[in-house]
Write a structure and sequence with these properties.
α1 crosses α2, α10 runs parallel beside α12 and α11 packs across α12. The protein has a 5-stranded parallel sheet with strand order 3-6-9-1-10. The termini are close together. It is globular and about 70 Å long. The chain folds into 2 domains: 223 residues, Rossmann fold (3-Layer(aba) Sandwich); 120 residues, Orthogonal Bundle (Helicase, Ruva Protein, domain 3). It is an alpha/beta fold and 343 residues long.
Length: 343
């Protein structure tokens, strides 16, 4: 049953997220859907992969999100000579103490900006695997917990560009969503010339939310109800990727978990304490496409993973409105929330 405190938490969430959204959109013009997805991933305890051509504002988006929240921020510029220890840290021998002292790497921050992540070698990229999934780092047999909230916002250029290494499947699978910013509209680009022409808007950006607020909002998102029918719908979408003839690698069970978590966050951003199939559907491309590998024939036919996911969405039946204890709930979307309250 939804309590007054839970409703108040959702109200606080909406107000706080609106402040952060306005702050970020003051820097990134004309891309409200990209900003919303970034906030969705943050509240769903995920990590965001921003992939696009150079110069469209990938790093600017990551920095604007980080500066809008009063928390620790570290930036890692991924280069071919970057070492794994530069990311995770290293144990150094202390002559005075005659013992090893651990020097934390750049990953020990609440928001980590990984710039051009696919320009580092696969060995260095793999240093992120443990931190992305388990939110901890193990060095010389000693495990160190990472701070909360913890989010990695990584940018990468398309793999066909020079000097890039493709991210391994295991690492792509650990990013909750991938977003492409795209070129701005002519109007937004004109506005960008006015705003960015003389000064850097990041210089005047001030935090509008605190880290402890984000932690509370994450807890509120965890309480969003996901009905059995909505969970089944998410499973059906992911299962369809594993048998599709145009894919040689489908989505993992981790993808299902990420899809449901993101649906919870989207529902909370909309002021609801229950998720709808529409929430799952709207996130399917962003959450699933970067995990999929098309077959060679599909690539020859210029079929993208995004197109395959769109096709799966069209052919997967949307669940009917749930029924609880024999009561028909009609076609009201609120039935997905009423189900939890009756139980």
């Amino acid at each position: 049953m939804t309590t007054y405190d839970e409703r108040a938490s959702l109200t606080d969430l909406t107000a706080t997220v609106e402040r952060v959204r306005s702050s970020v959109e003051g820097v990134i013009e004309g891309k409200p859907e990209v900003v919303r997805l970034s906030l969705t991933v943050l509240l769903a305890e995920g990590h965001l992969l921003i992939e696009d051509v150079p110069g469209v504002g990938k790093t600017m988006l990551a920095k604007a999100l980080a500066k809008s929240i009063d928390c620790s921020v570290r930036r890692i510029q991924f280069t071919p000579d970057l070492l794994p220890s530069d990311i995770t840290g290293v144990s150094i021998w202390d002559q005075q103490r005659r013992d090893f002292e651990f020097k934390p790497g750049a990953i020990f921050s609440q928001i980590v900006i990984g710039d051009e992540i696919n320009r580092a070698s696969p060995k260095t990229q793999s240093a992120l695997l443990e931190s992305l999934e388990e939110r901890q780092v193990t060095i010389d047999g000693q495990t160190y917990e990472l701070p909360s909230p913890f989010m990695v916002v990584a940018t990468q250029n398309p793999v066909e560009m020079e000097g890039t290494y493709p991210l391994p499947e295991a690492q792509r699978d650990r990013f909750m969503a991938r977003v492409s910013i795209g070129y701005p509209s002519p109007e937004a680009e004109l506005q960008m010339l006015d705003v960015h022409g003389g000064v850097n808007p990041l210089d005047d950006l001030q935090p509008v939310a605190h880290a402890h607020e984000i932690v509370k909002l994450i807890d509120a998102v965890r309480g969003v109800h996901v009905a059995d029918a909505v969970r089944r719908y998410a499973v059906d979408l992911v299962t369809a990727t594993r048998t599709h003839p145009d894919l040689r690698l489908g989505a993992s069970p981790r993808a299902t978990l990420h899809l449901v978590r993101a649906a919870r966050a989207t529902a909370a951003l909309s002021g609801r304490d229950y998720a709808l199939p529409d929430d799952v559907q709207s996130l399917a491309v962003a959450v699933l496409a970067h995990r999929l590998l098309p077959t060679a024939q599909a690539q020859l036919n210029r079929r993208t993973a995004e197109q395959v996911v769109e096709e799966i969405i069209q052919h997967t039946p949307v669940p009917a409105t749930p029924q609880t204890h024999g009561y028909g709930l009609g076609h009201d979307p609120q039935a997905y929330g009423q189900q939890s309250r009756r139980l």
